[in-house]
Specification:
mainly alpha, 4 helices, 68% helix
Length: 107
């Protein structure tokens, strides 16, 4: 990925994190769609497709955490931390990583 020159404002720098997240979750969608196609049209690959889709989702969450750590300039403001979440989850969202939230909500 190209970096933004330092003379560009903070708000333009947030673009890098947003772009990284879009690329990561776009690739996740493409890989899950391809695996779903295999599961439907190649039944012998169904189990592998389900496992692959699950791993793709977990890998995307991990990659998004890495992208945030790499591109976030300010812990108080970013494309994900400042989104309007449901009020009862907002304080929790600011304290936990994406993987911690996945475990908290679904396990």
């Amino acid at each position: 990925m190209n970096t933004v020159p330092s003379h560009i404002s903070f708000y333009m720098k947030k673009w890098q994190e947003f772009r990284a997240h879009n690329i990561i979750f776009g690739m996740r969608s493409i890989s899950c769609t391809v695996m779903a196609w295999f599961a439907v049209y190649k039944p012998q690959w169904r189990r592998v497709s389900v496992i692959g889709s699950s791993l793709s989702v977990l890998a995307a969450i991990y990659a998004a955490d890495l992208a945030t750590a790499r591109f976030r300039e300010n812990d108080k403001e970013s494309t994900t931390a400042t989104m309007p979440y449901v009020s009862r989850f907002a304080p929790l969202r600011l304290q936990l990583s994406n993987m911690d939230l996945l475990i908290y909500y679904f396990i």
